[in-house]
Amino acid sequence: GESVGLHLPTLSVQEGDNSIINCAYSNSASDYFIWYKQESGKGPQFIIDIRSNMDKRQGQRVTVLLNKTVKHLSLQIAATQPGDSAVYFCAENPYNNAGNMLTFGGGTRLMVKP
Amino acid sequence: KAGVTQTPRYLIKTRGQQVTLSCSPISGHRSVSWYQQTPGQGLQFLFEYFSETQRNKGNFPGRFSGRQFSNSRSEMNVSTLELGDSALYLCASSLSAGPNQPQHFGDGTRLSIL
User: Fold this and answer.
1) Phi-psi region at A9: left, alpha or beta (left = phi > 0; alpha = psi -120 to 50)
2) A28/B32 Cα distance (integer angstroms)
3) Do B105 and A36 touch (CB under 8 A)?
4) How many CA atoms lie within 13 Å of B34's alpha carbon, on the beta-carbon side?
5) What is the sign of the dihedral through the CA atoms of B5, B1, B53 and B46?
6) β-pairing verdict for B19-24 and B74-78
7) Tens of pLDDT along B35-89?
8) What CA–CA distances, in Å, run from B84 to B10, B40, B43, B56, B80?
9) What's the first-to-final CA gap in chain B, in angstroms?
């Protein structure tokens, strides 16, 4: 499978617990943020996105929180399951109206213990 | 609906050769972006195409080029391959040219340079 980083930060959680994955972004002018999940041997899979005019958005079992003051994003996964084990990336569009180019964070590996 | 399709999945080349990678976006998606993923540098933006025009380009040398066809399919080309070009090359598509569009990724082409 793909090794997306030799020294990825790792979060280890027990199955059924909630997980919180954090991300600091770089550009205070960024208007759009996305969380992706990448499993071994696969491409990044879209999880949830949020615009800068919101500070919270909920999906199925996931919640994204945006704190523009400190340029921080978090992804909360409720009732974490073994299938949630993967590398999670946050991404920002730092150029807003200039198209669809994303800047990615370094990733966090989530390991779920059964 | 089929996802983003990238071919080939694996490729082995030697230094100095050139390579062409192919991407078919999700049906109806008109914007295609390319990213390079390596363990050391993570996910980095290469370029984005919309309506057969390159809209954005990342910080990569001119050896990296791409194009988009009228059916939105895209190819990227790398000439004079170097060992450091070994990476997973990912293609992503989004619906339109708007800046805040979720990008959906294929599973990539793994390029190995010997």
Assistant:
1) beta
2) 26
3) yes
4) 31
5) negative
6) antiparallel
7) 999 998 999 999 999 999 998 899 999 999 999 999 999 999 999 999 999 999 9
8) 16, 11, 14, 23, 11
9) 37
Tell me how many residue pairs between chain A and chain B have CB atoms under 8 A apart. Answer: 87
pLDDT tens for each residue of A61-111: 999 999 999 999 999 999 999 999 999 999 998 766 567 789 999 999 999
Round to whole Å and give the CA distance between A25 and A70.
9
Work out the minimum CA distance from B77 to partner chain A, whole angstroms. Answer: 19
| Residue reference for tokens 């999906």 | A59
- What is the number of residues in chain A? 114
The amino acid present at A75, given as its one-letter code, is: L
CB distance A43–B48 less than 8 Å? no
Beta bridge pairs of residue B76? B21, B66
